[in-house]
Amino acid sequence: MPARADRLEVVVTLAPLLLSTQATVLRGLGPARAAALQEAGIATLHDLLMQLPYRYVDRGALVPMGALEMRGFQRAPEARELTTVLGHVVEVRQSTTHVQRMALTEVLLGDGTGTLRLVFFNQPYLGRSLKPGDRLLAFGPLVMGRHGLEMRGPQLEGMGRGAEGTEWVHRFLPLYRKLGPLTGRVRQKLVEEALQRAHPPEEWLPVELCRQLPDSLTALRLLHQPPDESDARLLETRDTLAHHRLATEELFAFALGVELRRAVRLKRKGMIVPTSEALRERLKSFLPFHLTEAQRRAFKEIVDDLTGGRVMHRLLQGDVGSGKTLVAFLAMAMVAETGGQGALLVPTEVLARQHALNFGRLLGEESRAMQLLLGPMKAAEKREAVARIASGEARYIVGTHALFQEEVRFHDLRLVVVDEQHRFGVKQREALKQKGLDPHWLVMSATPIPRSLALALFGDLDQSVLDELPPGRQPITTRRLDGHSAERAWDLVEKEFRAGRQAFVVSPAIDPTDEAKVKLRDIQAMEHLLRARFPGLDLEVVHGRLRPDDMAARMSRFVAGEAKLLLATTVIEVGVDVPNATVMVVDHAERFGLSQLHQLRGRVGRGAHRSFFVMLSDQESERLQALVDTQDGFRIAQKDLDIRGPGEFFGTRQAGLPQFQVADLVRDRERLQACRAAAVRTLALGLSDAQQDWLRRVQARLKLADVS
Ligand code: ADP
Ligand code: MG
C-alpha cells in the first residue's frame, strides 16, 4: 500500500545515522555486496564516504559527436587529452584482426549530432554485453583511424537504456570504481543514501586547522555531489576546500596517532648508560678524525637519549657520505664500553662484512669484542658466534636478519642500530620483545628524505640530521652523455685506470618481460662491450642472482684493488666503500630513480682524488639534470618525490605508509606539519569525546597501527 511506503520514508528521514554506523544498514546491500565492501576495507558509512569518486564527468565538457573533428587529434598521442562523449549504441560488430588474430570489437555510438567508432582489442565480452540502445559515456584519446576519427580502448560507463538512461540531471557526474559485484552506479546509490541519512558529526578538528574549511559532512557532500557551480579544474586536481578538509582530517588523525604512540614510549623506562670522563676518553681514542659539527650534534642527541632514562627511538638521517656509520659506531661504543651489547643490523651480507671490517679497524686492539653473524655461516663458525654473543664476550655485534633467529641469545642487548633499507618490521621488534628485551633503537636512513616525510614513514622516531659532509670532500663532476658519445665516458675511465684508479659501471637490472627490452643493453652486453674496449682488464661482474658467497668473493677482489673495474646492477647502491674508485658510469640512467642515482654517485668521491659520475642516456630530461645541478641529497629526494610521487619513491617501503584516501604526503607536507603541531597541543589539552571516537575509527581505516 502506498500509504505504508510513505510512512517508512518518514521514519528513515527521522532517524539520522552516525558516520560510525555500519554500512550494512544501507538498503540494497545483500550478502555479496556487503562482502565486497568488507573486502575493500569499508565497514562504516564514513569509510564508504571517504572513498571519493575517481573522476567527475562535466556535462559542460561533453563534446557533441558532430563537433569532434575540430579537436586537435594530430598532436602526439601522449599530449592528447581525454575526450568524453555520451551517446547510445547504434551497432556492435565483432571480428578478428587479420594479422595477430586478436578479437576486435567495434561499437558505433551516436548522439543525434553524429557518430563515433569505439574500437576495443581482446575484449570480446564487450561485444556480448553491449546492446543497441544502451546509453554509454566513453572517455579516451581520439585517434585518426582508417575510417576517420575513432576512440581506441576507451573507458566506458553504463548510463542505462533508452529513456530510463536520462537520470543524469546535474552538471557533474561522479564516477566510482567497480568493487566486485558493486558497480560504480550501485556505489553511487549507496553513497547517496548514506549522505541523505548521515547525521552531521560534532567537530573534531581543532579550530586552528579547520578555519575556512567546510565541516566534515559538507565536505563529503561537496565531493560526492558537486554543485553545478563547482570549479571543474579544482575538482579534477583534488584541490578544492572540501579536499583540503578531508586531507586535514586524515593528517591530523595520523599526527595524533604518532604523538600518542610517542607519549606511551616516553613513559617506558629506558636502560640508562652511565657516562664518565673515562668513557669519553675511551670513545675519543677510537676516533680516527674529528667529528663534523653535525656528527657532534647528532651524537649529543643520542647521548641525551641514552642517559635520559627513556627508550631511544631515533632516526639518523644524512646524505651519502655524511658519516652516519661513525655516529652509529659511537652509539654502540657507549653501551659496549659500559658493560652492555650493541647490535648493528644491515640488509645484506656484503654490507655486514664491510661494516665489520670498518668496526674492526676502529676498534683496533679491541676488535675481539666484535662479532659478525650471518645466515649462511659454517655450522662451527656459527656456533662459536652464537656462543660469544650469549656469553657477552661479543659486545659489538654486526649481522643480517640472522640476528633474530631463535638460537641467538644476547647477554645484555641495550642498543640496536638498523641500517634502514627495507623497513625494519614490527615483527623483528616483537621477536626481541619475546626475548624479554627492550633495547634502544637507532635507525639510519639510507636515502635522505625531507623531514615531514620522515615523520610519515617513521612515525614517532625522533630525528637527528647530518647536514654537513666531512671536510676535504671533492665535489663529484657529474655529466650526462648521449649513448652515441659513450666513447667519451670510456676514455675517461681509461684515463683513471692509467692514474691507478678503479671504476664502477652500472647496468640496469632488466626484467625479461620488459617491453622496451629490445632497445636496452643488459649487463651481459655491457660486459662484452667492456672486455672489447679494455682488453686484458681485470674486471668483476656482480648482480642480484649470484650466490651470496660468490658475490662477496667478487666484491672483495674489487675492494682489495685486484679487480680494476666492477660491473654491477644496483646491488652496489648502498654502502660499498672503495676510496680508490674515482669514476662511475651508469648505463640507461633514465631507468633509475633520482635518489637511487644519487646513492650510486655516493660510491665515488670517497677518497682524496677528483671523481666523476657519468650518466649515459639518450633522454635529455629535467630529472637527470637535477643530478648535474646539485649534490644535495635532500633536494634531490624532494625533486624525486615531486616527480614520481611517494608510492614509487618509497618503493618496497610503501607497505608501511599510512593509507590516505585524500591526503598526499608530498603535496600536503606543510599541512602535515601544521597537523603535527596541532596534535601536540591537542594532546596537551586532552582529547574530547568526539575526538576520541573519531580517532579510533580513522586509525583503523588508515592502518596506523602498523606505523613504527
Ligand atoms: P654514510 O654512511 O653516511 O654514507 P659513511 O659513514 O660511510 O657515510 O662515511 C663516509 C666516509 O667518510 C667514510 O669513509 C668515513 O670514514 C668518512 N668520515 C666519516 N666521518 C668523518 C669525519 N668526521 N671526518 C672525516 N672523514 C669522515
Ligand atoms: Mg653508510
| Structural Rg | 31 Å
What's the quaternary structure here?
single chain
**What is the CATH architecture descriptor of the largest domain?**
3-Layer(aba) Sandwich
Largest sheet: 7 strands, mixed
Ions, cofactors and other ligands present here are:
adenosine-5'-diphosphate, magnesium ion
CATH T-level topology of the largest domain: Rossmann fold
Which CATH top level class of the largest domain fits? Alpha Beta
Strand order of the largest sheet: 6-7-4-3-2-5-8
User: Mean pLDDT, nearest integer?
Assistant: 85
Shape, per Cα inertia axes: globular
Q: Return residue spans where pLDDT drops below 50 for at least 5 consecutive residues.
A: 1-8
**Portion in beta strands:** 15-25%
Count the beta strands: 22
By CATH's scheme, which homologous superfamily of the largest domain applies? Answer: P-loop containing nucleotide triphosphate hydrolases
User: N- to C-terminal separation?
Assistant: 58 Å
Backbone structural class: alpha/beta
Number of helices: 24
Number of domains: 4
Helix content: 25-40%
